[in-house]
Design brief:
Helix content is 0%, strand content 60%. The protein has one domain: YVTN repeat-like/Quinoprotein amine dehydrogenase (Methylamine Dehydrogenase, Chain H), CATH 2.130.10. The strands form seven sheets. A six-stranded antiparallel β-sheet has the order 1-2-3-30-29-28, with no helix packed on it. A four-stranded antiparallel β-sheet has the order 4-5-6-7, with no helix packed on it. A four-stranded antiparallel β-sheet has the order 8-9-10-11, with no helix packed on it. The protein is mainly β. A hairpin with a 4-residue loop joins strand 14 (155-160) and strand 15.
């Protein structure tokens, strides 16, 4: 595991710039030179931010604030300023964006609903009833389908993005939390925290085609569509499991730190970002080609969510106890 790196400090926006350098081959955008990961800004958002998602087309970031009367902070990804706050349901957790329609989905854990936000007007246009304790959400951008994990229901609700109705309910493992979609194969991957497994949901039939054993209490999950590799953050196992999505087998296990929580992939650099939901306040960056930790960065207290804008190779990390979002650039 890489050491915490803080090579240069200078005030930028409302945060601090501090950097770590990875020498992983192929990690830099468009080259094999070393890539430097910089925390270039810190943005104050709402209280208890957790889920975060990016609309690359509009350079807009959405940070969910996990309060009883939940909200979503809308951040301009260019200026790193909050431009709007959208009221949603009770205790929202997860969020995902359909880049084709600029639609934002937010899971409301207390209400058993999903709020649908128009990303152009930043207003809630629909509220969809799903299962018990909705947690994670992911979107297939080609089919405009949203997958929602129901943590207390051992199920996944499938939402038609055109009609905003639930069209299928898929039974998965115990305590489903995270979900990610491979847009090329239209396959969804669901972490079952109680089982230590990943359910693989394939095709338009919305059936579980495989179950893969991973580490202890998997939470976050992400897909690299270029390699079809799937990464799970095993929160009690202190590891990240790497699954070959073509064979549904674990091909590597990467040791990280105390509490790997959420995870995101930059498909252009094959960098994998993993939050450490702990007082250490760190983010691990894994070289997805070597499957080793390339660098560890200092962020805010108890980092929860992470998302990546692949067009500009920028990551966004929400810190639950700080009420902030860190901006990480790959250069």
């Amino acid at each position: 595991m890489g050491a915490i790196v803080a090579l240069a400090f200078s005030v930028i926006d409302s945060g601090h710039e501090h950097a770590g350098t990875s020498t992983a081959p192929g990690a830099a955008p468009g080259s094999t030179a070393p890539v430097t990961h910089l925390v270039t800004a810190t943005v104050a958002v709402g209280s208890l931010p957790n889920g975060v998602a990016v609309d690359s087309g509009t350079r807009t970031v959405y940070a969910v604030n996990h309060t009883v009367r939940g909200t979503v902070s809308v951040i301009d990804g260019t200026t790193h300023t909050v431009t709007a706050t959208v009221p949603v349901g009770g205790s929202p957790v997860g969020t995902a964006v359909d880049p084709g329609t600029h639609t934002v989905y937010v899971t409301n854990n207390d209400d058993d609903t999903v709020s649908v936000i128009d990303g152009n007007t930043h207003t809630v246009t629909a509220t969809v009833r799903v299962g018990n304790g909705p947690f994670g959400v992911a979107v297939d951008p080609e089919t405009h389908t949203a997958y929602v994990t129901n943590a207390f229901d051992t199920s996944v609700s499938v939402i038609n993005g055109n009609t905003h109705t639930v069209t299928a309910t898929v039974r998965v493992g115990n305590g489903p939390f995270g979900v990610a979609v491979d847009p090329d194969t239209h396959t969804a991957y669901v972490t079952n925290s109680g089982d230590g497994t990943v359910s693989v949901i394939g095709g338009s039939a919305y059936t579980v085609t495989a179950t893969v054993a991973v580490g202890k209490r998997p939470y976050g999950v992400a897909v690299d569509p270029g390699t079809h590799e799937v990464y799970t953050a095993n929160s009690d196992g202190h590891t990240v499991s790497v699954i070959d999505g073509r064979t549904n087998t674990v091909i590597a296990t990467v040791p990280v730190g105390t509490k790997p929580w959420e995870i995101a992939v930059d498909p252009g650099t094959h960098s994998v970002y993993v939050t450490n939901y702990d007082k250490d306040a760190t983010l691990w960056v894994i070289d997805g080609k070597a499957n080793t930790v390339a660098v560890t960065l200092a962020v805010g207290k108890y980092p929860w969510g992470v998302a990546v804008d692949p067009d500009i190779h920028t990551g966004y990390v929400t810190s639950y106890l700080d009420g902030t979002m860190s901006v990480i650039e790959a250069r």
